Automatic annotation (TrEMBL):
It comes from Shinella granuli. It comes from the Bacteria. GO terms for molecular function: DNA binding; DNA-binding transcription factor activity. Gene3D superfamilies: 3.30.450.40, Winged helix-like DNA-binding domain superfamily/Winged helix DNA-binding domain. The keyword Transcription regulation applies. GO terms for biological process: negative regulation of DNA-templated transcription. This is IclR family transcriptional regulator.
Length: 275
């Protein structure tokens, strides 16, 4: 009864149907609290976790079992100890990697923008899209702008195609075969055969070109960034109005962007691996 009073105290007028969301939030809050306790210990017993969290052992066991099903914690049947799971490690590693990428990339972006005179961008691949995470804008009045967090189609993006160029064709087909490749302009590679043809050219030259494939009047030159396993996890690019990026400039910027990508890969402790 005291527990029910504590839950409702200070929340007058709550209707019965409104309890579902707070209950879900409470479960999530308790699960995250347990995850934190497990992470702090070098193998934690259920009874200790119950004491530290002020939850009933049965509740702790139920929540830990759910977390274990998602790989967030692991249970040693011999010792009874609960430890952090592989999935939690992967999530933490991803955070560190992209936090590190955002920080380390800034001088590379600034140098690229100053050297090329166009906006420099960093984006990552996520579930078949590209997500822009950082940018240094050009000083020109007319320039490219990508808000951090903006998602874009991988097939119509310089960075997206740069990342795809490091994948085998079979992996590209597996990702895109069930999707409609959206048509943005007459230059969009909106079929898998035309995209793969372009990917072949990108592999040969070492950098990709978005030739007004997403937005008319805008061009982009990009190259992939690799992690310590040789996987392309991001890309760096320069982008700007097509009137300022004729073929001669695109050809000149290509090696510069690729060198920036290689430098950033090295600074992150990564290594290049081609498809």
């Amino acid at each position: 009864m005291a527990e029910q009073q504590e839950k409702t105290r200070g929340r007058p007028g709550r209707k019965a149907g409104e309890n579902a969301a707070p209950s879900s939030v409470q479960v999530l809050d308790r699960s995250l609290k347990l995850l934190d306790l497990v992470a702090q210990a070098d193998g934690a017993a259920l009874t200790d976790l119950a004491d530290q969290s002020a939850m009933a052992p049965s509740t702790v066991h139920r929540l830990l079992t759910s977390l274990a099903q998602h790989g967030m914690v692991a249970h040693d049947a011999e010792t009874g100890a609960w430890t952090i799971g592989v999935k939690a490690f992967e999530i933490g590693t991803a955070y560190l990697r992209f936090r590190k990428l955002g920080t380390i990339s800034r001088p590379f972006l600034k140098q690229l923008m100053e050297g090329c005179g166009e906006t420099a961008n960093i984006a990552i691949e996520d579930d078949g899209d590209v997500v822009f995470i950082s940018q240094v804008e050009s000083h020109a009045p007319m320039r490219a702008f990508f808000r951090p967090g903006r998602r874009g189609p991988i097939h119509a993006s310089g960075i997206g195609k740069a990342i795809l160029s490091t994948w085998p064709d079979a992996r590209i087909e597996a990702l895109l075969s069930g999707r409609t490749l959206q048509h943005f302009t007459d230059r969009t590679r909106d079929t898998i055969p035309t995209l793969l043809e372009d990917i072949g050219k990108i592999r040969a030259r070492g950098w990709s070109i978005d030739d007004e494939e997403h937005t008319l009047g805008m061009r982009c030159v990009a190259a992939p960034i690799f992690d310590e396993y040789g996987e392309a996890v991001a890309g760096i690019s320069v982008s700007g109005p097509a009137v300022r990026l004729p073929d001669s400039k695109v050809d000149a910027f290509g090696p510069v962007v690729r060198a920036a990508a290689e430098g950033l890969t090295k600074a992150m402790g990564g290594r290049s691996r081609r498809a």
